[in-house]
Amino acid sequence: MMILSFLQSLVACGQQTYDQKLKSIYSNTVNLVQPKEVSEKLNDENTVLLDTRSAKEYAVSHLPNAKFIDYDRFEIEQVSEIDKDKEIIVYCSVGYRSEKIGEKLKEAGYQNVKNLYGGIFQWKNENFDVVNQEGEVTDSVHTYNKRWGKWLEEGKGIKVYE
């Protein structure tokens, strides 16, 4: 029994928490915003949500009212209709890709840019709804791949990898 406890503690010490993982991947070049604060702005006409994941990821589910901006094909012209004074909240699976898009937005003169802390995974981990292409609430979340999918907590959503 004692050996089992020791082995479990070794495994636990080797596991990184989601917060630790996020700290290791963020450059902190774009201000972070918590999911609860974003949930209060979903219908705010002065706030624009940009989903920076792939088209496949967006098609599975996204935050309500989010506009699709493909990370791999991003051009600043895609957001030229957005007033530079509006609050822009970018997100992806965990916040890494969205931070990179946020940097480009800031370079282009958008000053009120924020990155959703923990991305869509943290959003779902905190029990907020996502919608599919038809705008209907869904439990499915594209988790990019199985390695990253571990950060979507069990029971918080249906993990989709393709």
From TrEMBL:
Pfam families reported for this sequence: Rhodanese
Domain of life: Bacteria
Stored InterPro entries: GlpE_sulfurtransferase, Rhodanese-like_dom, Rhodanese-like_dom_sf
Entries under SUPFAM superfamilies matching the protein: Rhodanese/Cell cycle control phosphatase
Coiled-coil spans in chain: none
Location of the Rhodanese domain: 43-132
PANTHER family: FAD-DEPENDENT OXIDOREDUCTASE (PTHR43031), PYRIDINE NUCLEOTIDE-DISULPHIDE OXIDOREDUCTASE (PTHR43031:SF1)
Protein name stated in the entry: Rhodanese-like domain-containing protein
Origin species: Marivirga arenosa
Lineage: Bacteria, Pseudomonadati, Bacteroidota, Cytophagia, Cytophagales
